[in-house]
Amino acid sequence: MAAATRKKSKAKKKAATKKKSARKSAAKKKTTKKAVKKKVTKKKTAKKKTSKKKVAKKKTTKKKSASKSRRKSASASKAAAYSPPAKLSISFTVNGAQVETDVPAHTSLLYLLRDLGFTEVKNGCEAGDCGACTIMLDGLAVNACCMLGVQANGSELETVKGIGTVDNLHPIQEKFIELGGIQCGFCTPGMIVAAKALLDANPSPTREEIKVGISGNLCRCTGYVKIIDSIEAAAAEMATK
Ligand code: FES
Ligand code: FES
Questions:
Q1: Residue 177 CB–ligand 2 contact under 6 Å
Q2: Ligand 1 neighbour 125 (Cβ under 6 A)
Q3: pLDDT in tens, 75-132
Q4: What DSSP assignment string belongs to the chain?
Q5: Which atom of ligand 1 is nearest to the CA of 134?
Q6: How many CB atoms lie within 10 A of CB 143?
Q7: Ligand 2 atom with the shortest distance to the CA of 221
Q8: Sheet of 156-158: strands edge to edge?
Q9: What 3 state SS string does 93-134 have?
Q10: Which tens digit of pLDDT belongs to each residue from 180-233?
């Protein structure tokens, strides 16, 4: 009897273990199914995202290329519409000689004069700072770089060459040579024109007035003292004549 009971309990135990393992495997299967589902969903979302990104990228590229082509066509039509500025016919005198010429409206008086061969008008800064381009326009000292060529129409211009010649120097030129008012000489044409304009307006200036008179002209060599001495001496000499 005892053997039969033991057999029965063993069989019971076996059945219980089987049931347990069946439950376990069912649970396992469920979990794997869930995991697979999750994976698939993840993949799907990633795919969706990527395709969305691709569409957005395509749209931006399209937009960019459209605006590029629009810009291209706009600049092409601009270029087609551009025509070089018309030249204007003007006339004036330089150092007493009549000049008639055609000049584009945007050309500065400095460029115009130098192009016409008046290279004694120096190009220092083209900004009205150095005074190297100083000339007389109707009796007034002006910076040729700060004027348009067309503005000289009908005017009388004078450069350093009109103030005196090599054979017949003006007292200002003589004194510049005599007293060392010239060193490299780059500022000299403008400086002498400025001095002439000063002495025309004020024949016996004080040293302070000379300094003010040439304050628009820069010299990198002389330190100005010799230039002021030269102008002062020229004024004194001119007063005796
Ligand atoms: S070049 Fe005209 S002021 Fe300097
Ligand atoms: S002499 Fe040289 S810049 Fe004046």
A1: no
A2: yes
A3: 777 767 777 668 999 999 999 999 999 999 999 999 999 999 999 999 999 999 999 9
A4: -HHHHHHHHHHHHHHHHHHHHHHHHHHHHHHHHHHHHHHHHHHHHHHHHHHHHHHHHHHHHHHHHHHHHHHHHHHHHHHHH--PPPEEEEEEEETTEEEEEEEETT-BHHHHHHHTT-TTS--S-SSSSS-TTEEEETTEEEEGGGSBGGGGTT-EEE-HHHH--SSS--HHHHHHHHHT--SS-SSHHHHHHHHHHHHHH-SS--HHHHHHHTTT---SSS-SHHHHHHHHHHHHHHHH-
A5: 2
A6: 25
A7: 2
A8: 97-104, 87-94, 156-158, 134-137, 140-143
A9: EECCEEEEEEEECCCEHHHHHHHCCCCCCCCCCCCCCCCCCE
A10: 999 999 999 999 999 999 999 999 999 999 999 999 999 999 999 999 999 999
Superfamily of domain 87-240: Beta-grasp domain (3.10.20.30)
Instruction: Determine whether the shortest distance from the Cβ of 114 to ligand 1 is under 6 A.
Output: no
Which residue ranges make up each domain of the chain?
A: 87-240
* 145 ligand 1 Cβ < 6 A: yes
